[in-house]
Each structure stands twice: as structure tokens, then as C-alpha cells.
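PROTEIN SPECIFICATION:
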Amino acid sequence: RISEGKTGRLRIAYMAFAAPQFMPLAVSRFQREHPDIDITLRYIGTQRQKVAIAHNEIDVGYLIGPLDHSDFGSCLVKSEPLYVVMPHNHPLSRKFKITPEDICQHELILGDLTEWEFYRWRLTEMFASYGLRFKIKHEASNALALSGLVAAGLGITVCPESLARTLDGPVTIQNVAHDAFKIDTVLVWSRLNRTKILRDFIKTAEAVTIERI
């Protein structure tokens, strides 16, 4: 339903890794440029976003990529290195480089399967491709809980740089010293959706991406 006084609507979904930076910047600019458009935002996990786009429940989504499917259009928003987040006094904080092998020697805290299922699958796949397997000690329901558990010394976590830099508390962050350990955030939409509103938002999102590289 379009709010009174608006001439169109845009339904945008996003997951945790898009929230700190690219999604808010693109939405804010688009809203300034198109004040007549009614924008709705929904927090939805990657897999559920794909279903929602296919069923026309949302117009466009920020999700974990890559995604190569004939029914969807997509563009890369950012390819981010993975970072380790740990308490200040953690043994890994004294290492000059942290390798995937180092991470597997310690217990991890990750987001729960409800919201982080696809990311956890991608993370497992990355480690497994090098014959490695990590250990999960605790699950967190959101980023606030995640940072609290890490700061309390209950484990370490691994997440994209943009999210790692938002986690509060007495924590240290350091990149994983391996070029293959990264996560892509992509913007995705249905190829059947050819509205001008969607095309204009994609242009805005791409412009923000280029400026922030």
C-alpha cells in the first residue's frame, strides 16, 4: 500500500552485512532524489530474499553473492575481506598474521541459523576447500549479542570487514590473511520487474558503490 501523497513505492530488503554502509547510503540518496517514492525496508536473510523477489514480495535486495541465475539481475556491491573479531587479550591478537588454520584452533561465535544460514554455509565451504573445519561454541541472535559474547571472552567470530568495524566493546579486529576469504554483497532484482523506479534505484546504488570503492 502506497502512503498518502506518494506516487510510487519501492520495497527493499537487506541482510546484516549491507546494513552498516551501502544500503543506508543508497536509500538515503534515492529518497532525497525521489521524495515522492514510498520506500519500505525489510531485514531478510539471503535465501529468503531470493524467494521474496521471485514472488514479487520485494523489488530489490541486498544479499550474499554471487548469484548467477537467468531469472535475476544482479550487480556487485562490495567484495569484502573477512575479519577476525576477538577480545583484546586473546592469543590471536598478538599474531602479526591470522591464518584460516589459526582460526580453527579456537572456538567461534556465529550468528544463528535463522538469519545467518547462508553465510555459515559459505564460511564452511571456504574452510572446507582448504581441508579445514572450524568449531562453533555459541550462536548469537544479532550483531549486538555477537559483540557482547566476544567481548566477554566466550569465543571469537569471523565476519566481513564492514560488520566487524561496527562491533562494540573491548575487542580487537584483524583481517584473515588469505585472499580467498572474502564475502560478496550483491544487489538483486527480478528481470521481470522493469519499472522505472527500480531502474532509478539500481543506478543510484551503483553510483554509491563506485564512490565508496
User: Anything to note?
Assistant: The radius of gyration is 18 Å. The mean pLDDT is 93. Residues 28 and 49 are 21 Å apart (CA to CA). The first strand starts at residue 8 and ends at 14.
